[in-house]
Every structure is written in C-alpha cells, then in structure tokens.
Amino acid sequence: MNEPKKPKEQEKRRSIVETAERLFCSRGIAETSMDDVAEAVPVSKMTLYKYVGSKDQLLDLVLDALMERGQEDFRSMLEGAPSPLEAFKAMAQYRGMDHINGAFVSDLMRLYPEKAKRIVQLQYQTVTPLMERLIFEGQQKGQIRKDLSPHVVLLFMMGLKDFVARSEAMGGPLDVRTVGEQLLSILYYGIVAPDQV
Q1: Looking at residues 33-41, what average pLDDT do you find?
Q2: How many CA atoms lie within 13 Å of 157's alpha carbon, on the beta-carbon side?
Q3: CA distance 71 to 64
Q4: What pLDDT, on the 0 to 100 scale, is given for residue 32?
Q5: Which of the listed ranges 34-43, 143-152, 182-191 does the model predict with the highest average pLDDT?
Q6: What value, to the nearest 5°, has the Cα angle with vertex 43 and ends 40 and 45?
Q7: CA-to-CA distance for 197 and 180, rounded, in angstroms?
Q8: Who contacts 103 (Cβ-Cβ below 8 Å, separation ≥6)?
C-alpha cells in the first residue's frame, strides 16, 4: 500500500481513515465492514480498496493515526504542565480517546493480537522513558514519594492500563472510562508525597 502523493488523494485517504476510526471505535472492528466504511465516507468499494488495500491495512492506518494523536497529546500534556504533578493531573483528566469503546479494544485483542502487541511495544519504546523521567522529576521536586522506584511506579501504571484494556476484567456496571478514572485516582493519591495532597 503506497502513500498517496497528490493532495487530493491524501485528503481522500485521510477521510477514509477518519471514517473507519469513527466506525471501528463506536461499533467495534468485527461489526464494521468495508461496505460500511465505503458507504459512510462516501466512496465506491473500488475506491476504498484503491486507497487502503484491505480491512487489515485500513486497521493499521487507523491504529497509526490513534497512536500518533495519542503521543502528540501526551507530549503536549508533558510540555504544557508547569510541574510533574500537574502533568499527572492532565493525564488523569485526558479525554482524547474516550470515543474508543470496549468492543474495539476487545476485537483488537482477540482478533488482531499482533497489532495489539505492536501498539504496546511502541508505547513502551516511546512513552516509558518520558514517564520515568516525569516520575523522577516529581521525586526531585518533592511531589512524588522518593521511596518508590520510577520504574516500579511505571510498571504499576502499565499493569493498571492493561487490566482495564481486557474486556473480561470489566464485568459489572462500570464502563472503561469510569474504571480508568478511579484507578488513576488511586494511583495518583498513592504516589503523591503527603505534603502535596
């Protein structure tokens, strides 16, 4: 699948990817057909396949767009925060991925485990060093407990994220966002130095 070179073709592909993201994230990957995407854009199926190749390739483009946007938002939160503690607050209040429902996450983990693994690896390579540095800076400023290893705090945070991402862990009346907010609150108040609470 080649990247379109002309601006009009780039815009068409962007429109297809945005539409697929909206459908995948609201219905789930399994419940969204290429016909659904073509109809929603709107383009013919032939045009859709010309620009994205296959549903598998379209999912790759959607995941790339989600990851790129998430990483940009994450960097903006870090750079825009006056302190590590404020950066953690911004992360706890982040709503940029609220449009992703449980069916999308479940389908990704169940039907496309290699793609889910790629996302985790990319996050580990890009986000982990930034988070460890943020935790360390918070410790140096007395905002985060110094008796905790930044690496262990990060492993704990990643474990919570992975737990929430597993749909079977979400049994009961709470949605992913609510559980995520409450777990972040527990984490946040568990690592903050007592004089900062």
Answers
A1: 97
A2: 25
A3: 10
A4: 97
A5: 34-43
A6: 100
A7: 20
A8: 27, 28, 29, 30, 31
The predicted-structure confidence for 153-177, as pLDDT tens digits, reads as follows 888 877 776 666 555 555 555 565 6
User: CA triplet 14, 44, 62: central angle to 5 degrees?
Assistant: 30
Check: CB of residue 161 under 8 Å from CB of residue 153: no
Q: Which residue type, as a one-letter code, is found at position 39?
A: E
Residue type at position 109 = M
Q: What is the mean pLDDT of residues 56-84?
A: 92
> Which position has the token pair 């793609």?
115
Dist. CA 170–CA 110, nearest whole Å: 15
Please tell me whether the overall predicted TM-score, pTM, comes out greater than 0.90 for this model: no
CA 10 vs CA 54, 66, 123, 151: distances in Å: 17, 17, 26, 41
Q: Is 165 exposed, middle or buried (0-12, 13-18, 19+ CB in 10 A)?
A: buried
User: How many degrees, rounded to 5, is the angle at CA 66 between CA 180 and CA 178?
Assistant: 15
CA dist., res. 168 & res. 186, Å (int)? 21
Question: SS3 for 75?
Answer: helix
3-class SS at 145? coil
